[in-house]
Amino acid sequence: MSSTSLIDNPPLASQAPAAPSAPLSGPLEGAPGIVGLPMAIAGAFGLGLVNTGFVPAGAAAAALPTVIAASAVGLLLAAVWACALGQNVSAGIFVLFFGFFATYGTLSLGLINGWLGIPSNQVVNAQTLWLTCWLVIFVMLTLVTLRLPWGNALMLVFVDIALVLLLIGTVQGNAGMINLGGWFTFAFVAVAIYFYIDVMWSQTGGRGLPLGRPLVR
């Protein structure tokens, strides 16, 4: 069976009720990763296509419907579901990814339509600020998940590397670095697909996939 992962963690013992309660049923039963993971995969894959140049620069906004209407909304729903189950860690992770995709969509639409009042000569600074903020968040998340199976940290390391490369490429105006960041986004997608298979197989009566041993005990 698979080990505990970011998207399937039981409540801590200290969070358990003092008295036994009836098992959860109906909408309060299940694994929120079934919703959250594919929605994150869809948005990340779209961003990867944009950053690697598979989508022409003039059509970069084509990824926004998937990022906003699928990834952001789906991850928010997964976070609410995880909260209902008492899976605090999972809920926190889903909210962070929701914030990432939601703010990406907000920044992109704001810059395209001039909603944010950012002058054209400050667009790069705005993008740099956004990338820096999320790089700090995801590096922090990577470090605090070292007590989970190492597959979790691997997935987040790919996010960290992608953000570093995108940040360098944005600051320097280096299309090659942005392109490379897009490929590391695909690496994140590959690991996330592995996690999704693990959740689906586990929830349909099969054996979960191995996720590795914790790096820190």
UniProtKB/TrEMBL annotation:
Membrane topology: Multi-pass membrane protein
InterPro entries, A to Z: AceTr, Gpr1/Fun34/SatP-like
Protein keywords: Membrane, Transmembrane, Transmembrane helix
Localisation per UniProt entry: Membrane
Superkingdom classification of source: Bacteria
Signal peptide feature range: none
Biased composition (Low complexity): 10-23
Region (Disordered): 1-23
Pfam families to which the protein is assigned, alphabetical: Gpr1_Fun34_YaaH (PF01184)
Sequence intervals crossing the membrane: 34-54, 60-84, 91-116, 128-146, 153-171, 177-197
Keyword match Iron-sulfur: no
Protein family according to the UniProt entry: Belongs to the acetate uptake transporter (AceTr) (TC 2.A.96) family.
PANTHER family: ACCUMULATION OF DYADS PROTEIN 2-RELATED (PTHR31123)
Protein's name according to its UniProt entry: GPR1/FUN34/YaaH family transporter
